[in-house]
Give the backbone structure.
Amino acid sequence: NAGVTQTPKFRILKIGQSMTLQCTQDMNHNYMYWYRQDPGMGLKLIYYSVGAGITDKGEVPNGYNVSRSTTEDFPLRLELAAPSQTSVYFCASTLGTDTQYFGPGTRLTVL
Amino acid sequence: EDQVTQSPEALRLQEGESSSLNCSYTVSGLRGLFWYRQDPGKGPEFLFTLYSAGEEKEKERLKATLTKKESFLHITAPKPEDSATYLCAVGFKTSYDKVIFGPGTSLSVIP
């Protein structure tokens, strides 16, 4: 199993551009999450999904959108990128236990 | 307000010098407390889940303990490969999907 994979690893965006961060898991997990991690701030939950077709907002959803059309994929969409969205983004999944499996992260810079 | 704090922010140990990391929490209805290890440039990796005060979990040189207000991660005779950032997080009884992460403790073990 590859576990949780994320693409791209790095990206630089200009203010106002849009992009999609990809997340795929091959463990047949129902629950998937998107977090952002800023230096010294811990991980903040952006959006989560409890299964295909079901998504909900986390603590910091503004400026982001998600979709969950399959169990495996949970893309995160940034519309109109802003410097405040410069961060490291992590996708995670779990079968429904408390053990979350994280991807390697996407480092995004908005200039 | 629900919150999780960790101390110290950074810790530098000599190889073999045992110490403890602290995670203090204020939450309404703790479901579980989680410890993760995060290496530079990688996603967090699950270590332990603790569910009730008095519970202890061990893995190699690490032991996690839980009280009603805090958790400790004890590191016995650490090695350089234990160098990482250690994150704690809490889950809530009333909302399975809500998890709050602390800011982490950066541990450096010097040979």
